[in-house]
Amino acid sequence: MQKYIIRRILQAIPILLGVSIIIFALTQAMPGDPLSHMMDPNITKEDLESAREKLGLNDPKYVQYFRWLGELLSGNLGFSTKYSKPVGDLIKERIGPTFTLSLLALTIALVFAIPIGVYSATKQYSKWDNLFTVFAFAGISIPVFFLALVLIWLFALQLQWFPSGGLTTPGVTYEFPKNIFNMLYHLVLPSMTLALLYMASFMRYTRSSMLEVIRQDYIRTARAKGLSEKVVIYKHALRNALIPVITILGLSLPGMFSGALVTETIFSLPGMGTLSYNAVVQRDYPILMATNLMFAIWTIVGNLLADIFYALVDPRIRYD
Amino acid sequence: MTEKLLEVKDLHTHFYTSDGEVPAVNGISFHLNKGETLAIVGESGCGKSVTSLSVMRLIPDPPGRIVDGQIFFEGEDLLKKSDSAMRKIRGNDISMIFQEPMTSLNPVFTVGDQIAEAVELHQGVSEEKAHKIAVEMLTLVGIPMPEQRAKEYPHQLSGGMRQRVMIAMALSCHPKLLIADEPTTALDVTIQAQILELMKKLRDETGTAIMLITHDLGVVADMAERVIVMYLGKIVEEAPVDDLFHKPLHPYTQGLLNSIPRMDRGKERLHVIEGSVPHPANMPTGCAFNPRCPHVREICLERMPELIKKEDGHTVRCWLYTEEGQASKAVSKEVSS
Amino acid sequence: MRNKPNDMRSEEILKKNKNKTTDKELKTQQIMSPGRIFWIRFRRNKLAITGTIVLLILASLSIMAPWIAPHDPNTTNVRYREKPPSAEHPLGTDTLGRDVLSRLLYGGRISMTVGVVAVAISLSIGILLGSLAGYYRGWVDTVIMRFTDIVISFPFLVIAITIAAILGPNFRNTVIIIGLLSWTGTARLVRGEFLSIRERDYVEAAHAIGAGEGRIIFRHILPNAMAPIIVSATLGMASAVLMEAYLSFLGLGVQQPIPSWGNMLVAAESLKALQYQWWLWVPPGTAIFITVLSINLVGDGLRDALDPRLKD
């Protein structure tokens, strides 16, 4: 088990390095360099050249890459000229809403998707199973922003049950935990949007995984023992069926982050997604690079955790 | 002493597939006495496994269903019992071991837990006590270091060990009937012998009746007292084990026996039954065995024979043993190409 | 009881009985071509058939847009802005007074073109890299698969808007970005197929008779991996259409005045339009939804029909 985890962590390192190289290459592909953004137009060419030399912009690319990587590892994610703040500080402020939203949505999705998936598998081709199938297809086909707009139209504009955007009522600070209920109230529609989206695919995965498992010999053994259908399905079958779903969860992370970006933008939530989007609009490259890096790292770490968790619940790997 | 434990009457189990309705078990009747070992033999697809699953009422529905018949266990019809009453019998009074020890145990629970689960359920003992019984059962089936093994997962055990665990699980509640569906088929030859020895020893100690499903006549000779031969969902011959081996009546039984390699026959060529088993959804007319039978008569192509009582406890479903059949004209062998 | 059919001699009955053994196999193995088996399976799937029909209708409407659109999609009319549906403008007019229905029809061409071209790009890259990895294995495989892992680590939208910001948002770059970022699934799939197919006898035989590597890859292995590739291409098309809509909705895909379903929805970002002007956002949103749904249904039907392992 320890060996497996260590091996998995070692495998993640080259991927992280590769991610950093791609991001560095993108930085290099950007129009202009840091100096062309911040320099006074009156400065002479010679001064500019010496400044470049001093900042190391004339060094070979690989030297610049390692210097950049060194900065990253020491926690320096760059400086945003637009916000006049270190990028690291900006990200710290924005992580909270993104994670709250994602976790909320994910929890809601799983709470509904797993029982529905199990039900659909045990009652394959029944009326309800067909209905859930149609729902799942709709869920994976609807664009997040359209779903968000429909929910805003219905719940915010027509019924006026929930606010149409923002993390808090104007004037209320993001202070935690004092204003938690105000925030949760604002997060109802965004998390519903994402939850419906995730639910569709997790429902399908649970269903197909469950269909595979209930055909196995050991399920027949469990029935032959005289166990009730409930125990057979929810103890013997589900435990096995959820193992592959864990991997799928890990693999769905990038898609979930993309969904969060769109949702945050539409509901004007001050999260990582809006930070990236505004950075694109304002051509704030240091922020853009940092958010790309953060999202990629979260994906890699998320997959790593999924693999470790997988090993924890599957004795076949745990005892290898 | 010959009290009937199990009596199956005119059982019909059909499967509804895309090829149409398949009568996998097509009207079979037999009984099993207390403490007796009965073997059901036949090629794959003859309905022997479906018969055993029907007794357990574990036919997957859909696609299968028991459409007719009665299954009396200790005088009560299992087919009339409620699901919950049936669950009290399964794993308790009747238990079953399966062909594939590699896949028949749940990979995510320890073997100890899997044995204890049935004990806890049927005997109403505490979890702790159930685990103690599980370890005792593992000792009984000859697993070394049972306490250690009980904490292990199925993938950590060899095939032979897993089949021992299956036997331990099946016997943990002292069943009156043990159904063993090809218990040794998936195992190595040396392990097969060990498992058979174990089953014989446990049967003699506990007095459990065994319904042994197999295609291996060697296993039959070793274990059974009485034998039923099945072909395409029907019983074609039933006899005490010695009778069957010494005086097989049905051409199919004769074919099966001739296809076993024997040391005492020297270098004689091994006999094989010609042709293959027809698809049950597409049954031949007349006797189902006629396409493969070396003694076909005209009557065999027209009607399915009834079971005929030849001697005490020896019955056969074949026209050759009737006057009508003897009188019927043999069909020329030319067409066998 | 002995009512033997007069016209049939015993020998014939026996012969017929013997043949029954193999009748079943004959029926499925020799009489039907693979294409026919596929069609019979596909036809049974009502949802897939519905998807196919809807998709065909949408595609023909898009192709015929220049002939059937009631107005020029780009003609603005400042005095006739944000008008609700009327006989003249069946789906009303947008903020610049352009006809929404016409823009919707022309937008379909953009969405479908992006879908087809982006999938062509991602399929080419995916098949090439997957084949190389699966055929050569060893370090080639390791390098390609690690590279795939790296690309997969970036959430699509985050990296896509970054690249769009660098390259500049337009139609061509949208297609390129989607194509360049969505080949990973195909590559993994093709690699997997190669790893299993290259071990089979007919590939060994091709090696034995001295067939060249290119020939083995393209004549012997790839055709046998086609079924899953077709399925993944179809589902890839659905996600390409969605991705275009996302990028254009965020203003980083297809740019005005070219109509795309994604950029038409930008109008709904104002709460006023969302509440009072449904014709500005419901039609393009529904169009994307229906299109993607149809493609997904077709893809699912193809998978069931092409891969019998998945259905009983």
Features:
heterotrimer; B: 337 residues; alpha/beta; 8-stranded mixed beta sheet; 4-stranded antiparallel beta sheet; 12 strands; C: 312 residues; mainly alpha; 15 helices; disordered N terminus
Summarize the helices and strands and which ones pair or pack.
The complex is a heterotrimer of chains A (320), B (337) and C (312).
Chain A: H1 2-29, H2 34-38, H3 45-55, H4 61-73, E1 79-80, E2 85-86, H5 87-122, H6 127-141, H7 144-158, H8 180-213, H9 217-224, H10 229-266, H11 272-281, H12 285-313, H13 315-318
Antiparallel strand pairs in A: 1-2
Chain B: E1 4-17, E2 20-33, E3 37-41, H1 48-56, E4 64-73, E5 76-77, H2 83-89, E6 94-97, H3 111-123, H4 127-140, H5 146-150, H6 159-171, E7 177-181, H7 189-206, E8 209-214, H8 217-223, E9 226-231, E10 234-240, H9 241-246, H10 251-258, E11 308-311, E12 314-316, H11 323-327
Parallel strand pairs in B: 3-8, 3-9, 6-7, 7-8
Antiparallel strand pairs in B: 1-2, 1-4, 4-5, 9-10, 10-12, 11-12
Helix pairs in contact in B: 3-4, 3-6, 4-6, 6-7
Chain C: H1 10-31, H2 34-44, H3 46-63, H4 65-68, H5 100-136, H6 138-153, H7 156-167, H8 171-181, H9 184-197, H10 201-208, H11 213-221, H12 226-249, H13 261-264, H14 271-276, H15 278-306
What does this structure look like?
- By secondary structure, chain A is an all-alpha fold.
- Chain A has helices spanning 2-29, 34-38, 45-55, 61-73, 87-122, 127-141, 144-158, 180-213, 217-224, 229-266, 272-281, 285-313, 315-318, and strands at 79-80, 85-86.
- Chain A starts with a helix and ends with a helix.
- The mean pLDDT of chain A is 85.
- Chain B is built from eleven helices and twelve strands.
- In chain B, 49% of the residues are buried.
- Chain C has helices at 10-31, 34-44, 46-63, 65-68, 100-136, 138-153, 156-167, 171-181, 184-197, 201-208, 213-221, 226-249, 261-264, 271-276, 278-306.
- The interface between A and C is large, with 48 and 43 residues.
